[in-house]
Amino acid sequence: MKRVQFEHSAVPYLFIAPQILIISIFFLWPAAQALYQSFLLEDAFGMSSQFVWFRNFEDVLTSSSWTRSAIFTVVFSVLVSVLSIAISLFLAVRADEVIRGAKSYKTLLMWGYAIAPPVAGLLGIMMFNPLMGDLYKAFNSFGFEFNHIENANDAAFIVILIAVWKQVSVNFIFFLSGLQGIPKSVQEAATLDCKSPERRFWTITFPLLAPTTFFLLVINLTYAFFETFGIIDVSTKGAPGGSTATLVYKVYVDGFLGADMGGSAAQSVLLMIMVSVLTVFQFRFIERKVHY
Amino acid sequence: MATVTLNQAQKTYPNGFKAIHGIDLKIEHGEFTVLVGPSGCGKSTLLRMIAGLEGISDGEIIIDDKVVNTVAPADRDIAMVFQNYALYPHMNNYDNMAYGLKNRGYSKAEIDAKVREAARILQLEDHLERKPRQLSGGQRQRVAMGRAIVRQPKVFLFDEPLSNLDAKLRVDMRLEIKNLQQRLGITSVYVTHDQVEAMTLADRLIVMNGGVAEQIGTPIDIYEKPASQFVAGFIGSPAMNFLKGKVSDDKKHVTVGDGVMLDLDHVVEAGRDVTVGIRPEHLELLKDGEGQINAGVRMVESLGAETLAYLDFGANADNVTLRLQGTHKFEKGEKLSLSVPASKIHLFDIESGQRI
User: Fold this and answer.
1) Contact residues on chain A for B74, CB-CB shorter than 8 A
2) CB < 8 Å to A191, chain B
3) What b/e sequence results for A22-48 when a residue is b if at least 16 CB atoms lie within 10 Å of its CB, and e otherwise?
4) Which residues of B242-255 are buried (b: 16+ CB within 10 A; e: fewer)?
5) Which parts of B103-228 fold into alpha helices (H)?
6) Using CB atoms within 10 A of its CB, is residue B136 exposed (0-12), middle (13-18) or buried (19+)?
7) If DSSP codes are grouped into helix, strand and coil, which group holds residue A15?
8) Where are the domains of chain A?
9) Which of B103, B141, B158, B189 to mutate to test the interface with A (most CBs of A within 10 A)?
10) Do A191 and B74 touch (CB under 8 A)?
11) Does the distance separating the beta carbons of A292 and B89 come in below 8 Å?
12) Res A37: pLDDT
């Protein structure tokens, strides 16, 4: 076999240059900066700094607040992803069955997508405002002693609720198009082979949606990790006592509010490592199982 | 083995469109029935009604002695083969065939025996572990047939199963389907728009048009005695020639074109305007100018085994197609002299299109 060898020219490099430039400026350079900074101990005003090797990492990993934030982030991300995927799958399956008025119905379900995370956070926290929030009043009138200002679980509940609500519409769009991509005749063949609609769903429809579900899992975990920043910042600001601060939010709080640049940089480096591991895991072990 | 009976089966869609206008039909044990017609004639709708994929608006569908109007598709004991195969892409071929059996609670051993038997019949033994996408179109269609036969259903339904295959494979699969159906003796309903499939496969043919069964009969009956101008034009390729005609005063002849008189083999009321139908293969070419019909050659298609000549006939240059065995050489504009036996002339009412 003779390998085809194209003539070398600068053209292909020119084509990828803009992309490389963007990645370099907005990702590689800041990442390198963060890595460098994570080895430094800086005074609060940035006047002097000292190279301290891994002391920032030691501090971070041994601090109870970071561990708590890490645990919260994992629980939060898993709950947000699983709940928003499950709810939107349910809605999409129902919407797919609707024939009359389908278009307006589907458009309404997609609207949430157009809302920016901070706005969603604001809407959410207003609904739980102790003075005028309808949901706050409703929960308490049902006998729950709901108090997100003091109770960490209640605060987490609010953040998860807002994050899920915001994400459902995105997932819904993908699931709906995924469902519409399943050939009608395959569904019909299944109705001849299997009487129970539930069983049909789990043995035919759901496996055929698996690639979509996997894609959404990746997207949603990333969303829960990073994009919920706006929601948290507007709604709870990590309160009470940092119990609803995800790792990203904690990076911001410690670095920009606490002025601990070294510690914050070390946290963001750890975050980068975690996300890389997660991504590799997802693609190596899950993706292989979902594609048919 | 089962019978399928339709009593005034009707289908009206919510928007008021009437797809099926009341069809009466009885399909006997082991009979191979073909529904044929142009697209939009309701043949697929009728098949899907038997399958239960479409509801029935009025009338009855009976499988054996049981009215199945509201019975779920899975409980009708039917199996269907779809045009685009409709295999489950995430399952291998074995599981595709086993799926219906699993859901009906067969034991693992029974399922295995049935699937392997079906695979043996359809020569799919080497492909059971593969996914459908790894197979060719013909093999996929075999898996779809396998999925239908493993259950040994009362009725087979085929919805244009060969339309997605290339021409050669279509002929092979056609023979295979016919073979399989005769061997298993399962009552079958087959939908197609391809009249060659219809003629070759059918024990009984149903020609549909606009939601109505225009004619029901054996393929040869329908070919020889089409009940209407529509059926006459639809069955037979190339299509039957139609000419405007008028029955002569002696009631034994019909005049076409510029006063050309053709003999009739039965008596028709004098002076009646009719449509005269003559199949291209029933026109006979005469050596010398003795024939009743004279027409000029417009175009010739030589297919080797046969020759098709497209002719201009009469003052209006009506199109007439002539089909001859073997090869013939004609010049463009050459005058041909033709005749047709009285028994091969079909007359249709000019208004209703019904056979006279």
Assistant:
1) 191-195
2) 52-53, 72-74
3) eeeeeeeeeeeebeebbbbbbeeeeee
4) bbebbbbeeebbbb
5) 108-121, 137-149, 167-184, 195-201, 219-224
6) exposed
7) helix
8) 59-290
9) B103
10) yes
11) yes
12) 84
Residue A44 has pLDDT above 80, yes or no: no
Cis before A240? omega within 30:
yes
Q: What is the pLDDT of residues A139-182, one digit of tens each?
A: 888 877 777 778 888 888 888 998 998 899 889 989 988 998 89
Segment B167-177 shows an average pLDDT of 89
Task: Specify the CATH number for A59-290; select among 3.90.180.10, 1.10.472.10, 3.40.309.10, 1.10.3720.10.
Answer: 1.10.3720.10
Q: How far apart are CA A111 and CA A59, in angstroms?
A: 44
Is A208's CB within 8 Å of B147's CB? Answer: no
> Is the bond into A130 cis (omega within 30 degrees of 0)?
no
Angstrom distance (rounded) from CA A204 to CA A191: 10
Phi-psi region of A236 (alpha: psi -120 to 50; beta: other; left: phi over 0): alpha
Q: How close, in Å, is residue B75 to chain A by CA atoms?
A: 7
Q: Are the C-beta atoms of B340 and B262 separated by less than 8 Å?
A: yes
Q: List all residues 6 or more positions away from B29 whose beta carbon is below 8 Å from its beta carbon.
A: B1, B2, B3, B185, B187
> Whole-model pTM?
0.80
- Dist. CA B244–CA B256, nearest whole Å: 6
Contacts of B80 in chain A (CB under 8 A): 188-189, 192
Q: Is the pLDDT of residue A212 over 60?
A: yes
Which A residues, 40 through 99, put their C-beta within 8 Å of a C-beta on chain B?
Answer: none
Q: Say yes or no for a CB contact (<8 Å) between A292 and B51.
A: no
So what's the pLDDT on residue B235?
Answer: 92
CA pair distance A234, A118, nearest whole angstrom: 6
Q: Do A186 and B131 touch (CB under 8 A)?
A: no
Percent of chain B past pLDDT 90, that is, above it, reads 63
Name the residue of chain B whose CA is nearest to A291's CA. Answer: B90
Of the candidates A186, A192, A203, the beta carbon closest to that of B80 is on: A192
Interface pTM, i.e. ipTM: 0.83
Burial of A280 (0-12, 13-18, 19+ CB in 10 A): exposed
Instruction: Determine the Cα–Cα distance for residues B35 and B190; give it in Å rounded to an integer.
Output: 6
Query: How many angstroms separate the CA of residue A87 from the nearest CA in chain B?
Result: 24
Using DSSP bridges, classify how beta strands A40-42 and A49-51 pair: parallel, antiparallel or unpaired: antiparallel
Largest CA-CA distance found in chain A, in angstroms, rounded:
78
Distance from CA of A222 to the nearest CA of B (A): 28
Q: Taken in order A277, A280, A283, A286, is the CA torsion positive or negative?
A: negative
Domain ranges of chain B: 4-234, 241-349
Q: Is the pLDDT of residue A1 over 60?
A: no
B298-343, pLDDT tens digit by residue? 999 999 999 999 999 887 778 899 999 999 888 888 888 888 998 9
What is the third-level CATH fold of B241-349?
A: OB fold (Dihydrolipoamide Acetyltransferase, E2P) (2.40.50)
Phi, psi (deg, nearest 5) at residue B348: -130, 145
Comparing A157-171, A257-271, B235-249, the range with the smallest average pLDDT is: A257-271
CATH class of this structure's domain B4-234: alpha beta
Strands B318-325 vs B306-313: parallel, antiparallel or unpaired? antiparallel
Q: Is the pLDDT of residue A263 over 90?
A: no
